[in-house]
Amino acid sequence: MTPKQIRVMVLNDMEKLDRTLFRLEQGFELQFRLGPTLQGKHVHVYTNYPAEGELFERHKFHALDWINPTGRQDDSDKFCTLDLKISGSYQYYFGHGDKEKSGGGYIVVDPVLRVGADNHILPLDCISIQTYLSKCLGPLDEWLDRLRVTKEAGYNMIHFTPLQTLGESRSCYSLADQLELNPDFSPPGQAYNWTDVGNLVEKMKNEWNMLCITDVVYNHTAANSKWIEKHPECGYNLVNSPHLKPAWVLDRALWHVTCAIADGKYKDRGLPALIEDHQHLHAIRGVLWQDVFPKIKLWEFFQVKVEPAVDQFRALLQSGAKPDRSKTNGKQQLKIIQDPQYRRFGNTVDMDSALETFVPHGSSPGAIEDCCNWLRRRLDELNNEQFHEIKHHQEQATNCIDGTVSYERLADHGPKLGPVTRKHPLVTRYFTFPFKEATLEQDLELMNQPEKSCHFLAHNGWVMADDPLRNFAEPGSNVYIRRELICWGDSVKLRYGNGPEDCPYLWAHMQKYTEITAKHFVGVRLDNCHSTPLHVAEFMLDAARTLRPDLYVAAELFTGSEELDNVFVTRLGISSLIREAMSAGDSHEEGRLVYRYGGEPVGAFLQPSLRPLVPSIAHAMFLDVTHDNECPIQIRSVYDSLPSSAIVSMACCATGSTRGYDELVPHQISVVSEERFYSKWNPQAKPSSPGEVNLQSGIIAGKLAINRLHQELAAKGFNQVFVDQVDEDIVAVTRHCPSTHQSVVAVCRTAFKNPKHHRYADEVPPMCIPGKIEEVVLEARTVERQAGSYKKDERSINGMPEYTVEIKEHIQLKDSKVVRQAGVTSRGRSEYVQEIVFEQLTPGSIIAFRVSLDPKSQELVGVLRNHLIQFNPLYKAGSLSDPNTPDILKSTLTQIMSKMTLADMNILLFRCDEEEKEEGGGCYNIPGWTALKYGGLQGLLSVMADIRPKNDLGHPFCDNLRQGDWMIDYVSNRLMSRGGTLAEVGQWFQAMFTYLKHIPRYLIPCYFDAILVGAYTTALDATFKQMSSFVQNGSSFVKLLALGSVQMCGVGRVPALPPLSPALTDVPYRVNEITKQKEQCCVSLAAGLPHFSAGIFRCWGRDTFIALRGLMLVTGRHLEARNIILAFAGTLRHGLIPNLLGEGVGARFNCRDAVWWWLQCIQDYCTMVPNGNDILQCPVSRMYPTDDSKPLTPGTVDQLLYEVIHEAMERHMQGIEFRERNAGPQIDRNMRDEGFNIVAKVNPDTGFVYGGNRFNCGTWMDKMGESEKARNKGIPATPRDGSAVEIVGLCKSTLRWLVELHKQGLFPYNTVTIHKDGKQLSVSYEEWDRKIQGNFEKMFYVSHDPNDPNEKHPELVHKRGIYKDSYGASSPWCDYQLRPNFTIAMVVAPELFTVERAWEALNVTEEKLLGPLGMKTLDPDDMVYCGVYDNSLDNDNYNLARGFNYHQGPEWLWPIGYFLRAKIYFAKKLGKDTYDKTVYLVKNALSRHYVHMERSSWKGLPELTNENGQFCPFSCETQAWSLAAVLEVLHDL
Fold first, then answer.
1. Catalytic residue set
2. What is the pTM of this model?
3. What is the strand order of the sheet 1504-1505 is part of?
């Protein structure tokens, strides 16, 4: 069962993709997902793809339903979906809130073509098409004899130029009647109709496996179409398009110049009828400027008659008229109104603008007359401007006329029309003129007679470098007056207007024409597509698809830009764009086109079945020659026909040709003038017999072989392409099949120049072909033969009989005439290469080899694919079972990995360089590039995730894999050295890699990727199975964050945690490799990677317990969380938990907050873990039972955890005061002496914990000044002494919990006992709790009342409605700084806050501190704020030097978790509306973290960013508390 192909379109706000092409196939599923700018918003996606059971209507949109498979925490997995079953072009758009459209685009679903009596599918890349000029087919009953040539030459599709009645000019594209079959197809006494054509097409489909398409021409009709005489409104005439009158006047004048030149009237002015040189051209210019332009006075159509306008103005002034301000907006600007009828001097003056602009100085007649004179002067100026504007048009018209005459009559490459006559006028007429010849004056009178002027219809044509989206016949375009149109004088341009209501007859007529075509043909070619109005083509193709849903649409676009091409391709649902090999000037460019138009690179990665929808280029129909191209035999040489068409046929797209190319017709078969018939098929025909061809004619035999090969390669999945420019004339194209690893290599020696006149080298460079050549599929070359020379036949279109193809097919290499020898060389154990030396690869010859891997490689690839089926059923194709499967591969990887612990997963997936070095290794380093971020699989996968979608096989990573086995061995050896289950996984890799090492090097990257992707996804599945149901059922984002737990939690070579009590059960042990003794191996939590990952700097009390809830409790790692809590409990000293752990023996007790975070974690453990309160009874092995004891061995002094908790509380109430051990530079080289004095006490009045001094920093904002230059060394940037707000909150939370535990009988103590002044005092936990509750808002809230009696320092208040950062700081202004810390207190002790006040403070915080990923650590309005952290900068700036501003502005990530959780908590209290808005804010904020993690090669969230989310190079790339805090928000949602 092949997996369903799913493509994901990520929607981003304001992203309009209507010029981007997205191609999909029927059977695909398209999912729309929300990008970061839209997550959390109420987004609606609309599409006109029809709902189940409905018919497609372009303007009918319906909304799609959202599916959120993982519930509601976030929008990372929310999607809506389309099951694509119908081909065509479909639009989608999306909006949110009150914006109906805030982005959108189109998708194109390819048609499925079916052929043969059994209706089998013909893939688009299998198409081999041949074009016929229909008028050269003769009577319908002779068609099969002529069309048989196409069948016998191996094509499977025919393109007919239009089959309708042709116009006077006999051009294939000028149709007199769109609804009638060309009567030429019916011999005398017969009247064939569309049904007969349809039957013939059906017969070819069923019996010949041949499909047929034909053109539709919407842009013009033949000038002599009967229907347009009856319905002149269908064209652009002087009645419905009066703006064309000046151009028509010029056109008539030029016709009269033609008549005069033809009649010899200008001979005496040096202008004869036969124009032969540039002097004659100069004479034409003279006639135009002296006779024509002055006579027809075109400028008058754009001018104002001055005196009547002045008279009208004077009358208004005299009557005291005032301007209408609603029309002028008070602007003084004279407006001229263009006469909509375009009469001479028909323009008028907008009198309101005149009255506004020219105001008299009084009401006297003199003042009014002055005013009229000003107007007169201005009108004269404006008329003069119009005169000059028309003069510019006339100059351009003169240049265009000059260019046309020069091309048509003088140029060597032009048609050389001969003398000027009425049949071959000086220039083509731009308008029809169905009346008798008369004088110019008489002609011009007709312009004002609507019943006649409606028949002056504008011809169609094309305009060089024009905007294809603009209609050049509509008002605003000057193409006709400037003579810029390259005009088709036989065709009238059709005027559709904006919709059927504008020209009902034309739309109905053309719809009928479209329906006839769609009924009988599988597809259409949109002729002149780039100048067909888009809305017209859309409407017609919709009508066609109603009859034939799988309509194949081909078109040629000459817009000059891929982006503009896409406008047509996406809106019309064009299936294939016609591309011309004739556009290549040399073989190198021809090879480049093959590479450009299809296929993946050889050795491409297997893409996942669910992947992002990426823009594509339009599917190509690559033709060796089109019916519009000049003849390649004339431009290149006859010898090039075979190799160039072979290069084209090797392209991985639709390919084709035009009838005549294969027969070597040595001239262009003109769509206008050719009237002879094509030759018929006759196997017995002689080379020179007229009107007949067979396999010996031209290159037909060669074409048959390469068409067959083209179709086989596409049908069998040879979709990888490599193009090698062997030398300037030789192109080698490889097509490779990724499942069987067979290749076909075609070597083509082009002959752009004729070998008879151009010297080609005799020596051809040898070629190395990797693999084993199974056979020569074909070798062929063009040779001369004795059959007379070419004479153009009168009755049939004939080719050059003197050339034929010498061809051999399916021969062994030894029987080849082209190859002299093929030596087998083996490069290394897996490179089997054949060197080909050519003997007769003459210009014009081709050879194609079928190549397999050598038998050993082929077998090993098959076995490897067999082992990969467990990860992806697509590997079944080309797989082989292995009789000697090694034991380790007999189990699936899932079975092996199910035995791994999450600590094992940390080694398998992660481990940064510092962690690897601790074990004596390091991360893999790619020479000349960079080292990987991790030693584990994630290090490799992060790089491969960038390479895979782009198939960037030239990346140094892929080079390294191709050049040797170093990376491969690194992966398996690293794991095998570890022992246990990891070693088993290592053996599994080693066994898989044994196969990998013996296949050709160019395939190693894609199979290495397949093995690693399979192993990685299996490891993730096994990882999440061991986590909480919240993670298992969570979104992609939740899982990504939960992986952070695996990333941060591991066991090093030396355990980082002090040992636990031997009395404790469920503690993991291992045998120490060096001492061979049993030792505990508990998981510890790294603070951040790479800086805080190994050795003494891995574990910090504060970081551990801020991160523990998110990374361990939320993810379900309860036992490991217990062990960490108890290990730290054992190190309690002075009533504090250490900051830097240093395995306990090297601990520093210099922070005031770690103990409170530890207590908060115990509380969280008790509430979140089943039977969590049991932890309170767990034994804790005290390392320091007294403050001064030496570190004791585990088990010497054990206490229960609740006793340790009580001790910590009691010590604070008693008051902690000590000097750090070993104080001095040996433990801190920056600290001043006073900083080593540690104080932590409780204020007896308020219950607030306070402490610290201005020379130390006891909270998380712990930057110590380091710069002597700036004189900040030894001074903390943020001492936060006094009562820090989060510590007060954490203390309150602990008290509330202990009171509750005591009530439940789970905690024996209800009071703390202290000694003061020789007396013993008791304080109950309840009383302490009440004190904080009663004093918190009094002391911390900054109220709006300027006379608030609780405010000690009203002069320091600069923001109101917020909570202070601290209370009682030694520098009082520090208390009033706005920082994000109070949000922590809101989460852990929300009862301290009044809801309304809390909400207001949160809103201020959001406005001032919220950044893209983190929270600003200080109010930007603060004078010391600086948002960019640079730890290496040492200057004399006190506030910045050596990163002094670490917590004075840079945006830290972990506080955003508390901010968002506080918002969620208080929003719930404020009602549904506020809550919904908050959920949007939260989802939107977190979507940026999701994007960051997705893109991060560390797969983590950083410690901090610089201001506005900019990257900070001094930050850890991934930080435990950042990941934990964000995961906790999702848990709260």
1. 527, 530, 628
2. 0.88
3. 1415-1416, 1451-1452, 1504-1505
